[in-house]
Amino acid sequence: MGLFSKRSSSKSNSLSSPDVNKKGSSTSVNSSVRSPTTPGSKMGFANGNGALDTIPASMSLPPPPNPHGDPVAYLRSLYAVRDRTKCIMDAALKQQLTNFTFDKTKWEETVSYVVSIIKRDYAPDYHTIPPHGRWQHFEVGGRKRVDLLITTFGPDVEAIEKTKRLIDLFLISVLLDAGAGTKWVYKSKDNGRFYRRSEGLAVASMDMFKDGLFSSEPHNPFRVDGSALKLLMPDSLARGLQITATNPIDGLHGRAGLLRKLGQALDNKEYFGTDNRPGNMLDYLLNHSTTKVIDGKPYVLVTTLWTVLCEGLTPIWPQSRTQLDGCSLGDAWQCSTMPPGQYWERIVPFHKITQWLTYSLMVPMTKLMGIQWIGEHLLTGLPEYRNGGLFIDTGLITLKPQHTKRGLDAYHANSKKEGQPSVEVVPMFSAEDDVIVEWRALTVQLLDRLLPEVNEMLGLQGHDALTLAQMLEGGTWKGGRELAEVSRPNTREPPIMILSDGTVF
């Protein structure tokens, strides 16, 4: 399944060293705005303890929850993602994976490929690589849609309200960003161009936002509130997404149901205020007891934002997912590769959508409000099919034959359904399948280990080194997509397909 035929020796310590991500910097969203990174931070991910930032003396990150005392809180925390997935990486290094084989000889080629993508698009101005987030998807086709949107708000709208409106938009847009399938396209209202996948969903969500689909206030379309979302039906969303019999999208009913559940979650007045808006989380963050204002700039803990998103959005996730002590854990799944232990110890959390939200929402809050973030190093690489597909298409990991057969059988069965793809056959699994869980865990860990190697090959160090969010944006996510386009030009799908219900990825 790999594209690379040349075999090269690997650095024995590049994959096994625990100190894999101690480089980081602040960078630019554009030439004039700094991205959300912890001032003076080091990307110290190895131990998952979140204690590696250089932060103001008056601030400190909270310790991780005690996994034995409160496993639910632990598995919902950012700390657990890197901590739990490390067990899967340890198994890979010992060739003890359940579903994949791991070929360390492909490591240097994988690093070189990611570096080549970054050099092609950004050299020598690596500082201009924006952090991975939803903002870039809105700008597909070179159109500065977010900036243009802000100008339509008018000069009398204060910065805090502008920021709230962007939080409203970005949160809705990210939650709609599940896999779109191979056939769906969206015709942009601003330039008439057609867009697909994540960029198409971004542009579509902005058009629906401007049309007031998510607002209950007829005189103010530029907002999202629970009253409007609770009434959102699939047919309204289908019209907004331009869905027809010949332009289908995966998981329409799942997306609509997710947004209706979001409407109910927004009843949480502590996080979302009396008018039930996502943007009101800004008030909660700015007024939180851990937030400090230093030299006129607000410093906010990433863990505070994480609490809002993880706890505040808990009601939106399907209750059929993994539960512990009667509590839904969201994007967390059992994995057979985990070491023996109690039930909770065999669960691997990812919280991909919540992390994607965190990355995405930090950007407008920094650009418009000047918020500085403490603890960004706790965020991991996103375990989704573009980043994960990169490691399969380079041959670094390969699905074992018995699981390949099982996945191909599932693909063939699915292809018999109306509207489903039947070309460029690849293994297919549901999101909770052991194959997908192991694949996603490997993705988190391999991204961590890739970052210092990429920086070294680019000759970047200290405050010039790329952050993880920059590498995701400039290298791995884009590289994974481009490899898919070369390997499977008809569908451009990843090397393993995930059955989407519109709520997982």
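Above is the first protein from milestone M3; the second protein from the same milestone is given next.
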Amino acid sequence: MKLGVFTPLLSQMPLEEVLAKLKTLQIETVELGTGNYPGDAHCKLSMLEDSDALKAFQQKLADQGTTISALSCHGNALHPDPEQAKRAQEVSRKTILLAEKLGIPVVVDFSGCPGDSPQAKAPNWVTCPWPPEYLSVLDWQWNEVVTPYWVRHAQFAADHGVKIAIEMHPGFVAYSPETMLRLRSIAGPSVGCNYDPSHMFWQGIDPIAAIRILGDAIFHVHAKDTQMYPANLSRTGVLDTKPYTDEPNRGWIFRTCGYGHGAEWWKEFVSTLRMYGYDSVLSIEHEDSLLSPEEGLRKAAQFLHEVVIRETPAAAWWV
């Protein structure tokens, strides 16, 4: 297993400087945004039609000995606004094509969230089964919007030899192991998850136990932590809608790895991932509002270098 970095936290720097900087932190793998929410500061989809730009991009990576773990295009392809949905879908399709061209096996995305009807203007994330109209909305979303799109899009990815790793994120239809596996059962084996334990913590889901549930559906992993604040949580609950920068009053906030849970927890997390067949990249994602990107990245890298498993264990004498 090795460390990587999801580079939007360094979007103000050109790619060459990003790669050189990461090398000083002993990181030689990156996850690059191609549009939608992550932006495309370091990886332009226009390279699909510009062979010279594509060669120059590949040369920059080769010069630093850097590989790409995934291309990421987190968006809402199911948005009820047709124009927004079309833009997100186009970015996702082109990202799959670029991944195929570059030989990258995984594209990271969101599952998306529709509205509550064909006339809706904004997404509607259903969080409870009552009053009964909420279940009617949920059935309509999955049957009429989620299933047709994801059956079609998953097949497109499979046709191009690429897997789609859905980041389970509240606000979208796949936000938990159960909803993730429901989507996978509909879309097929080319759809799995980008596993971010920080999104499990604040929902009250044990991220290590969830690895055992997800198993081989884990295609890619983000390294990000969450700190819970019980003094506030009794008031806010986990569905806290205050801005992330209102740290004193929130029930929880995202943290740099090690600031929410210590090395013992992260060692068990990494070991369980490996136990269930994932031995690829931990991609550091910085969303800690209490630390600058520079400090958060450096501290996460230092911390995680001590907990990743870098070598395949030798066969035991009793095997």
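Note on the second protein: The radius of gyration is 20 Å.
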